[in-house]
Amino acid sequence: MAFKGRMFAALFLAVLSVQAAFGADLKGGKDSPLLRRYEGSFIVQYEAKEYDSTVIPLGKTVYRDGRYVFTASEKAEGRTTRLLYVAPAGRSALEVFRNYEGELKEKRYDILFSGSKDELGPYDSFAETLYGRDRHYPIPGDERTKNQQFLSARLVRPEGNVYVTVCAFENNFWGSETKMEKGRTYCRVDIVETKPMETKMTVVTSEEMAQGLETSGRIALYGIYFDTDKADIKPESKPALEEMAKLLKAFPDLRGLIVGHTDSTGDREYNMGLSRRRAEAVVKSLRDHYGIAASRLIPAGVGMLAPVASNRTEEGRAKNRRVELVEM
Length: 328
Hints:
Elements: H1 6-22, E1 42-57, E2 61-64, E3 67-70, E4 73-86, H2 93-106, E5 110-116, H3 125-131, E6 149-155, E7 162-171, H4 175-178, E8 184-194, H5 206-216, E9 218-221, H6 238-250, E10 256-261, H7 268-290, E11 297-303, H8 314-320, E12 322-327
Parallel strand pairs: 10-11
Antiparallel strand pairs: 1-4, 2-3, 4-8, 5-6, 6-7, 7-8, 9-12, 10-12
């Protein structure tokens, strides 16, 4: 049975057909200065954000626990550009893909993962797992979409690493629905320039923590920072940890849960483990650096299970990535 998403892909390409007929870039669309486009192609979808989170696949998709997941992946956060190009008529997905691959290698990117067709996973599971059913979702990758190609790459640089994903594919099925030529090649390119998120969350004082615990039994702490996909506490977390220690010393009978939370990006089980490791790191830091008995605090991780905002925006995801102190 083919993977779900056919109807959405048809509607997606129906929007693109209007721009394809004119053969010009989408209004407002522009190339990233970090990567040239394939000669003669033009932009049909464009999105740029100063800070966003992107999954970087490092392996194919497999069916596990009722859904498709990547065998390996990581997340990259920072300035993000998402582009969908349509290539000149007569160009194959493989030709376009090889040009991007060569360009990245010439710029000294490391290829993290590369595959085509069945090497990526069954049906259109790879594209749908990666891109979701949004307006950037490519055509399904089953036997009717020829020569689907994908790679993920990374450039290591002092000012912040750059991640690039490239997905090229030929439309050999939806032509009648969209009035587009069959065999036309599209190429989705995502570019992430990693950088620390500008910190705008105010550190919660010990007095505010005490008030929050009194009124609701819990307080969300946004001043504790971790690198993406890591549980090592960053140095800029010190003010928040100092306020937590001040609270715990002021109320020696206080016992609580340290609960780690993540956004919805990535695998659920992985996020559950990551959030728990982060909570454990907070307990350890309070014990080792501030003399707080670990027996007073119980670490727990709930991953993405208790959001306080929508995960559809970066602002919402930032609110969901937090540590909470819950009174016991």
